[in-house]
Amino acid sequence: xxxxxxxxxxxxxxxxxxxxxxxxxxxxxxxxxxxxxxxxxxxxxxxxxxxxxxxxxxxxxxxxxxxxxxxxxxxxx
Length: 77
Fold this sequence. Notes:
The protein is an all-alpha fold. Helix content is 30%, strand content 0%. It has one helix at residues 3-25. The longest helix has 23 residues, at 3-25.
C-alpha cells in the first residue's frame, strides 16, 4: 500500500467520522439554544381561544357496499 492511498484513507475516515458526529448532533434541539443570532419571537397580542371542531354533516343516504349490487349473471326480467 502506498503512502498516498494510506493518507487518503485516513482523510476519508476522518471525514466519515465527522459527518457521523454532525449527523447525530443535528437532531438535538439543545443546540438551537446556542445560536447567538436567533431573534426572540414575541407572541401576537390578543385573546387566545381554542378552534372549534367542525365536522361535515352526515349524508342523507348511507352508501351500500358493492356486494349489495345484483350479479351480472342474474336474469333481470
